[in-house]
Amino acid sequence: MMPGNNLLTVRSLGMRFGGIQALTDVNFDIPTDSISALIGPNGAGKTTVFNCITGFYRPSAGDIDLTVGGHSQNLGKLLASKLLGGSHRIARHGIARTFQNIRLFREMTVLENLLVAQHHSLNHNLLSGFFRTRGYRDSEQTAIDHAIRWLNVVGLRDCANRLSGTLPYGHQRRLEIARAMCTHPKLICLDEPAAGLNPRETEDLATLIRQLRQNHGVTVLLIEHDMGLVMGISDHIVVLDHGKVIAKGAPHEIANSPAVILAYLGVDEKTDTKAKTQ
Ligand SMILES: Nc1ncnc2c1ncn2[C@@H]1O[C@H](COP(=O)(O)OP(=O)(O)OP(=O)(O)O)[C@@H](O)[C@H]1O
Ligand SMILES: [Mg+2]
Question: In this predicted model, what pLDDT tens digit does every residue of 62-97 receive, in sequence order?
Fold first, then answer.
């Protein structure tokens, strides 16, 4: 495979929190236009990988490169910039995310949440906002139109003026996806998007994720404990355990990997019970 076919490459990634080595020598690639999954038992380091990719953490070691249209960007260098918060810089370069614990502005409407997300890409400054110049009004209208388009895609058009904190949980998860997509990402990182959803909502989520890749040109990386969902929609799976990659491959390879089965089932009864509850 040509190197340009990978949207993201993660090389020798390490993350240490004081005495805890959360990630050790993590290596994997995310092929452009793929749906890829990052799985592993609780505490394996999955969210920490997301936090490194999306600029919430500065890795202790290693490199993460994003390659778009043959042009590679080292995310560590973007993070080192002091001009803007690291995660905002990375968002501008095409990586968006959702959170394991939903982080919406609960006291704002659904529409307002999507407008705030676009704020950094709006083409105006403080003065043009104050005087409500033509350019300002145009860009504001473009942002509203864009938000409404995304509300239609995720099926929340009728909720545009509701306070987001009053939405049912499954709708909040979809709103988070719309909010991430509003920033025109090349890569969307979904942290446990099916957590708390019922089987019907999980099926709808699978359809939405496929649509994102097919109709909106985004590469998807998801963390998920719902193995039915992961096996059903992923082209490619990376398995973490205790901060290390223990397997990578297609769903059927992962499902039959002895190392993965051992990591999930564990060797004693305590870990076994944990695996069954996931
Ligand atoms: N900010 C932090 N400070 C200290 N330790 C942290 C921090 N973030 C993560 N960790 C530790 O890193 C390890 C990996 O945590 P992480 O949240 O990445 O796991 P996970 O695979 O996402 O687990 P889960 O499936 O439960 O969400 C854990 O031991 C966790 O306690
Ligand atoms: Mg997590």
Answer: 999 999 988 898 887 766 665 555 566 666 679 999
Give the least confident one: 41-45, 92-96, 161-165. 92-96
Give which of 211, 206, 199 is closest to 222, Cα–Cα: 206
**Is the shortest distance between the CB of 43 and ligand 1 below 6 Å?**
yes
CA of 43 to the centre of ligand 1 (A): 5
| CA distances to 52, 113, 159, 166 from 109, in Å | 30, 6, 9, 9
Burial of 31 (0-12, 13-18, 19+ CB in 10 A): middle
Which 3 state secondary structure label does DSSP give 89?
helix
113 lines ligand 1 (CB under 6 A): no
Q: Is 46 in the pocket of ligand 1 (CB under 6 A)?
A: yes
Nearest 5°: the CA angle 222, 224, 229 is 95
Among the bound ligands, the one closest to the CA of 98: 2
173 CA distance to ligand 1 middle (Å): 21
Domains in the chain: ranges and CATH: 1-94+186-204+219-278 (3.40.50.300), 106-184 (no CATH)
- Given a cut of 80, is residue 169 above it in pLDDT? yes
> Whose C-alpha lies nearest to ligand 1, atom 10?
22
Residue 39, phi then psi, degrees to nearest 5: -125, 170
